[in-house]
Amino acid sequence: MRKLGSVLVAYSGGVDSAFLLKIACKALGNKVLAVTALSETYPASELRCASALAKKIKVKHKVIRTRELQDPDFARNPVNRCYYCKKELFSRLKAIAQKKNLRYVADGSNVDDTGDYRPGTKAKEEFGVVSPLQEAGLTKDDIRQLSKKMGLATWCKPALACLASRVPYGSRISKKRLLRIDAAENILKKEFGISGNLRVRDYLDEARIEADKKVINKLLRGLKLERLLKPLGYKKILVDPKGYRTGSMNEFNKLKCL
């Protein structure tokens, strides 16, 4: 990190970017700028937590608004959707870094990210974004353990992914749809006391719910889910018995229908 000299950190407030920001500040002092992108693709509640932690770390923090939905290539939701999202983000971050005379833009990618389909990696390469945690050989578990030792409250935070990842490829992404997903997840978190992983996969008339296995039985009790989610426009609510996992939208699972 010291070799970078100065850096703009793509900071979402999640486990990886929070750890990266903390390390950057320890290594580079005031030669660090944290930038958080705000858009319909991320839960609005995340900004409050990200801002609070940046203030605690005592780092300069800038919030920008990105416009992924204005890109027709992103909105039509192809399998390389993340490329267009990251292209919008990194182009904005690169411009800010140049304006602020910061040598690099860094993101929180880790070693585990290399084992999954990540079309956003192409955008990283195009804009010269560096991934110090990945280059240091750190896994997600490594980062959680180190974050805990450093006293970062994010060490046990659930994995964060953009709301667009809840929409199956080829099905159009809209602001209305993203807001509905966010609302559905917030309702479930509040009603069932869910603090771990939760995803409401949006199949237009269907909501397919994934959560940590320890809360699945709680979700399956009675018809409470229908009462909670049908007012949002979902006609059918399903719970995946396999629980939360990444890449599940490419699977054909036997789901329990309520």
Give a quick rundown of the structure.
The protein has helices at 15-28, 45-57, 72-75, 81-99, 120-126, 132-135, 140-149, 175-192, 213-220, 224-229; strands spanning 7-10, 32-38, 60-65, 104-106, 198-203, 206-211, 236-239, 256-257. By secondary structure, the chain is an alpha/beta fold. The strands form 2 sheets. The chain has a 4-stranded parallel sheet, with helices on both faces.
Count of helical regions: 10
Q: Approximately what portion of the residues adopt beta-strand conformation? A: 5-15%
Instruction: Tell me how many strands there are.
Output: 8
Oligomer: single chain
- Which word captures the global form? globular
State the low-pLDDT regions, or none.
Answer: 252-258
Explain what you see.
The structure is a single chain. Helices cover 40% and strands 15% of the residues. With 258 residues, the chain is an alpha/beta fold. The strands form two sheets. Strands 3-2-1-4 form a four-stranded parallel β-sheet, sandwiched between helices. α1 links the parallel β1 and β2. The longest helix has 19 residues. The protein is globular and about 55 Å long. 36% of the residues are buried.
